[in-house]
Amino acid sequence: MDKQLTIAEATRALTLFPDLDGFDQRMAACEQVAIPLQESFVSGMYMRQITIPAGTFLTGRAYKHDYIDIMTGGHILVATPDGVIERKGANTMDGKAGRRRMGYAVEDTPWITVHQYGLEGRDNVLDRISFLTRGDWEVWRDQVDYFVALHENGITPEQVAEETANGGDVVWLSSVPVISAPSKREGVGLFAACDIIGGHAFMPARLADGRRTQAGRYTNHGADPNCRFYEPGDGGVMMQALRTIRAGEELTVNYRNVMRMREVA
User: What is the pLDDT of residues 222-237, one digit of tens each?
Assistant: First the structure.
């Protein structure tokens, strides 16, 4: 960068983009800084070591599993969900699975991350242990947890696929704020056609006569879902937003809760 920012200026810049993907797009249009990387492998552990030049913004990847951050010196500002934090000198920090970060180096800052990578080889190790975006990590997490949830309840993926393929009991509702489309998680998923306010029960998943809607047929599993199914007491099942959902976002429910509802019924 031609001009190094003050701490106040850098802090303001880090708070302008709560969406890291938007920050990535903005930085892609700027001059890129080459940062040499040193890698070490030992007994299934993978260490990455860089020195972040003063005056540099950078973003991190979303790692599949927790890891360790080691800062051996320097001065850096890091954006977190709780605000921008300032780190100086030597620090050791817990790196959380799925959490991407962005930062600004006030001084040259040596940074080390230590990861588990298994013993299946070193080729493409970074792509095996991480993702470029938080969204891709969430899809991977939900896919893994989907099979765990099925196993916990003694259900096979084939049984779920058979129920999904059976469309004889499905009623397709119009005038609901959802669309169906191909999903990265599994097959066809349900997506918000517009913003949906958190707490709003916005459509039935099952009617009182037992027939399913597109919500009952196509909603995929989420380990940290943005929706839930609940029984309002009339024999049907409603779908409710657990938080505000943005247009285009895939709707998910935790299948564990759905299976418990079936056991009670």
Answer: 999 999 999 998 989 9
- How far is residue 86's CA from residue 66's CA, in Å, rounded to a whole number? 22
Are residues 223 and 142 in contact, defined by beta-carbon separation less than 8 angstroms?
yes
pTM for the complete prediction? Answer: 0.88
Rounded Cα gap, residues 71 and 95, in angstroms: 12
**Mean model confidence pLDDT for the chain:** 91
Instruction: State the Cα–Cα distance between residues 136 and 214, nearest whole angstrom.
Output: 24
At 102, which amino acid appears?
A: M
The CA–CA distances, whole Å, from 111 to 35, 84, 94, 116, 171 equal 11, 18, 13, 17, 55
Tokens of 135: 């969204």
Tokens of residue 208, six digits: 């009182």
pLDDT in tens, 77-112: 998 878 899 999 999 999 999 999 899 999 999 999
Q: Which amino acid is at 114?
A: V
- Hey, which residues does 79 pair with through a beta bridge? 84, 102
Q: What is the C-alpha to C-alpha distance for residues 103 and 128, in angstroms, rounded to an integer?
A: 24
Residue 168: partners with Cβ closer than 8 Å, 6 or more residues away: none
- Per-residue b/e over 33-49, b at no fewer than 16 CB within 10 Å? eeeeeeeeeeeeebbbb
- Tell me the residue ranges of DSSP E strands in 43-82: 45-52, 57-59, 62-63, 67-80
**pLDDT level of residue 18 (50, 70, 90 thresholds):** low
Residue 136, pLDDT > 60, answer yes
Write phi, then psi, for 79 (nearest 5 degrees).
Answer: -80, 130
